[in-house]
Amino acid sequence: MGEKYAGRRIVDLTVASPALARDAQVRLLTPRGWHGRGSPPPRARPGVSSDTAPRPRHHWPVLWLLPGGDGDHLPWTREYGIQHLPELWHTLVVMPQMPLFGFCTDWWNGGAGGPPAVEAFHLREVLPLVERHYGGGPRRVIAGQSQGGFGALSYTARHPGMFRAAASYSGFVHPHQHPHAVRAAMEYLGLDWLALWGHPERQRAVWTARDPAYLTHRLRGVPVHLSCGDGRLGPLDPPDTPPDEHIPGLVDPANPFPADVLSPTEAIMLEENRALAPLLRAAGARVTTHFHSGTHDPPYWARELRASLPTLLAALHG
Q1: What kind of architecture, by CATH, is found in domain 2-48+56-317?
Q2: Which helix (H) or strand (E) holds 27?
Q3: How does residue 53 score in pLDDT terms, banded at 50, 70 and 90?
Q4: Is the model's pLDDT at 69 over the cut of 70?
Q5: pLDDT, tens digit, for every residue of 174-192?
Q6: Count of CB atoms within 10 A of residue 32's CB?
Q7: What share of the chain is helix, strand, coil (3-state, %, to 5)?
Q8: Which pLDDT band holds residue 1 (cuts at 50, 70, 90)?
Q9: What is the pLDDT of residues 151-163, one digit of tens each?
Q10: Bridge-based pairing state of the strands 223-229 and 22-29
Q11: Cα(46)–Cα(93) distance, rounded to whole angstroms?
């Protein structure tokens, strides 16, 4: 594993991941008072302890931030500037990478499993690594954008007690409601859509075991924040914002969107979020929502992250 300091409070890790069968990146935003204690030796591997590896003397509450479908873990600091937020001075922030359209999940791969196993990378490799060597403590909350919003809710439900609260920004939070959208996006990117979870009906159990809409009973009492735009021009979109790039098969021809919807992806996400919210409430989750005008675009995710931080941090520090 490699480690480098990329700026004040920012540490970048390169992890040799068996789950992904490749090297992958993780960015840490360290809290004030963190001095780099406990970094592992260069040959350390996730999940492998070493008697010679120093361990941190202090453990910090942890905020996980998951990437969107492009897998880029850097916008949280590069574009959203979370390193400038005083609310995070006393929190360790973990921002792991993901393969393209990795969907925060261990791929089915025709039943064979194997890489990319994104959930295993995040939770079985990065999480123990951060806690063993970088001062991550047992108090954790999680948030994500787009596919990362799916991951935040799915991970929290699939691993009860691991995360105290979850937030999703324009999240793909009920993929089984729109399997045609999963297929269209993956085929557009040249990926085998059936490798992800198989066929949505023939392998229904694989889909539902990961879809937050089928896991709401595991989120009873958990603070969950959902935010999403409607796909129309919103206050953070320039007036000349063009429509999303056309993806064949993304929009159901039997149920087209209105002409003023510029972002079909965001409109689909809104349908999923509106379907999920009442299911969460019925299951006893502590749900807050912010559904607004706007497209599937980073300025909204930066705004919604800041708006949801009080909820996340209250669960983290409470």
Answers
A1: 3-Layer(aba) Sandwich (3.40)
A2: strand 22-29
A3: very low
A4: yes
A5: 999 999 999 999 999 999 9
A6: 10
A7: 35, 20, 45
A8: low
A9: 999 999 999 999 9
A10: unpaired
A11: 18
Please state the rounded mean pLDDT for residues 36-63.
Answer: 55
H or E element that contains 66? strand 60-66
Q: What is the token pair recorded at 269? A: 């996400």
What is the per-residue pLDDT across 194-220, written as a single tens digit (0 to 9) for each?
999 999 999 999 999 999 999 999 999
Helices (H) and strands (E) in the chain, counts: 9, 9
Instruction: Give the separation between CA 110 and CA 166, rounded to whole angstroms.
Output: 30
Tell me how far apart the alpha carbons of residues 247 and 265 are, in angstroms, rounded to a whole number: 10
Mean pLDDT score across all residues of the chain:
92
Domain boundaries, the chain: 2-48+56-317
Residue 51 has phi, psi (to 5 degrees) of: -65, -20
Q: Two tokens at 289? A: 């929502």
pLDDT at position 255, please? 86
Q: Which residues contact 196 (CB under 8 A, 6 or more apart)?
A: 103, 105, 107, 108, 182, 186
d(CA 133, CA 156): 23
Structure tokens given for 229: 């735009």
DSSP codes of every residue in 137-203: EEEEEEEEETHHHHHHHHHHHHSTTS-S-EEEES----GGG-HHHHHHHHHHTT--THHHH--TTTT
